[in-house]
Write a structure and sequence with these properties.
Layout lengths: L14 H16 L4 E4 L1 H7 L7 E5 L3 H7 L3 E5 L4 E6 L2 E7 L1 E4 L9 E4 L3 H6 L9 E2 L5 E2 L4 H6 L2 E2 L5 H7 L2 H13 L2 E2 L1 H10 L8 H12 L4 H10 L2 H4 L7 H7 L9 H11 L4 H10 L4 H16 L11 H7 L1 H16 L6 H10 L13 H7 L6 H15 L7 H20 L1
Parallel strand pairs: 2-5, 10-11
Antiparallel strand pairs: 1-2, 1-8, 3-4, 4-5, 6-7, 8-9
This protein binds adenosine-5'-triphosphate (ATP) and magnesium ion.
The site of adenosine-5'-triphosphate has 11 residues, from α7.
Length: 424
């Protein structure tokens, strides 16, 4: 592949991170051991992709690595991993090792520290992930990883069947990298994946969903879906079997025009599963809290308002409480499911309606519970919340101005009416 690795010719945006990491490599080398950047960071450097974290491999034993740096965390000493903190950055430094056993199809029974870089690279999953690099940006590539990168191919290191039998999660990792990079899976590798797919039953739900999350937010998501369909993963493997029908239908939709949240919501809506099953899936999945919350709220909203398509029919209160992005997503998906397309001016239209609201946040209402308690001589109780909700509704619908006196007068009036009705 045409490598832009010569210093001065190409300055990657991740250069500062590599510069800090380079100091770690240098310190280890000064102490008589080898050390390299390794794995995903080398792959992403060569692809000029954004680099999130840098892994380092070394011939130095973990106990020694712990002594070479002032700030370290013994992340996984049995597996040889020490986290080194340097200049506000974190680096995982792992001693060269081989793995053996894999009786449970997901974890090695034993790891053995070795002194040879090649042996360490040999245990890694794909050729594009099995390269190392020194601080001069020189690449150590024993398995034609650079060639596979330039041919946009994902290929297992070594015997593919054996590699997937060892760890079935690699099947989903291959699919995930194909989604992220837009790469094809090499023929023998794909055949081996097909032959070992049953092993996925030994992989935990969380790890599978985790890979899925990454696929779902990837630019080439449809590519991954095709592989999963080929692999018949949907049919056999929980949690995918839950959503099988939904997955099959996703192919009919322009997924690349949808963001990650929209893709999940679309999947849930295409799945003929009862609402509690979807909510339970969300509860159990290890999505981050924020994503989980958004998906849960918006899925429930979609269940309540499956037919709503017109911006003008959105209740003011829903617009205020849920905000513009959630409403745009609801309308977009409703239109997509109903009409096969959506109005691309939706975003502007919803924003315009939101802007025209008399208030833009619930807390901008001119009264709160405290004001109500002070103004009205009645023991506090759930009635206060009801009155506040009612006041909000009236302000949003411009029945009343957002003024303290007007709102409190209205509450007093309502309470008087209620009292009179109760007496009659
Ligand atoms: P990203 O961090 O973008 O998800 P990555 O390639 O860095 O991608 P990690 O899961 O961080 O992936 O793993 C770091 C490296 O460890 C990989 O590049 C690969 O060399 C190796 N690796 C990770 N998981 C496995 C696995 N299941 N089998 C074999 N090697 C693995
Ligand atoms: Mg990584």
């Amino acid at each position: 592949m045409r490598l832009k690795k010569k210093r001065g010719m190409f300055m990657p945006s991740s250069a500062p991170l590599f510069n800090v990491g380079g100091k770690i490599l240098q310190t280890i080398k000064d102490n008589g051991y080898e050390a390299f950047f390794v794995g995903g960071c080398v792959r992403d450097f060569l692809l000029q992709r954004k680099i999130n974290d840098i892994d380092i491999c070394t011939s130095a034993p973990p106990e020694l690595v712990m002594t070479l740096f002032s700030r370290t965390i013994p992340t996984g000493l049995q597996h040889g991993t020490v986290t080194v903190l340097l200049e506000e950055e974190m680096f995982e430094v792992t001693t060269y090792r081989t793995e053996s056993g894999y009786q449970d199809h997901r974890r090695p029974d034993a790891v053995r520290f070795v002194s040879d870089l090649r042996e360490d690279l040999l245990r890694r999953d794909f050729t594009i992930n099995a390269m190392a690099m020194d601080e001069q940006y020189n690449i150590m590539d024993y398995f034609q990883g650079q060639e596979d990168l330039s041919n946009c191919v994902i290929r297992a290191v070594g015997n593919p069947l054996q590699r997937f039998e060892e760890d079935a999660l690699r099947i989903l990792r291959a699919v995930r990298f194909s989604c992220q990079l837009g790469f094809d899976i090499e023929e023998q590798t794909l055949l081996a994946m097909q032959g070992t797919v049953q092993g996925l039953q030994y992989v935990s739900f969380e790890r599978k969903v985790n890979e899925w999350m990454k696929c779902f937010r990837s630019p080439h998501v449809t590519k991954g879906l095709s592989y999963l369909q080929d692999l018949r993963v949907f049919e056999d493997i929980a949690p995918f079997s839950t959503f099988e029908t939904g997955y099959q239908q996703l192919f009919h939709y322009p997924l690349t025009d949808l963001d990650e949240t929209e893709r999940w919501l679309l999947l849930f809506r295409l799945t003929p599963q009862p609402k509690p099953i979807i909510l339970d899936f969300l509860k159990k999945s290890n999505m981050d809290k924020h994503t989980k919350q958004i998906l849960t709220t918006e899925y429930e909203l979609a269940c309540d308002q499956p037919g709503l398509q017109d911006v003008n029919h959105i209740p003011h209160k829903a617009l205020l409480e849920l905000g513009v992005p959630a409403i745009v997503r609801l309308l977009k998906l409703n239109q997509l499911l109903e009409l096969g397309e959506w109005d691309h001016r939706l975003g502007d239209r919803v924003k315009h309606r939101h802007k025209a609201l008399p208030i833009h946040r619930k807390k901008d209402l001119a009264i709160d519970g405290h004001d109500v308690v002070q103004a009205i001589n009645k023991p506090a109780g759930p009635w206060i919340q009801c009155m506040l909700e009612d006041a909000l509704e009236k302000v949003l619908n411009r029945v009343l101005p957002n003024e303290k006196d007007a709102l409190l007068d209205e509450i007093k009036r309502q309470l008087r009416t209620e009292k009179r009705d109760a007496h009659e």
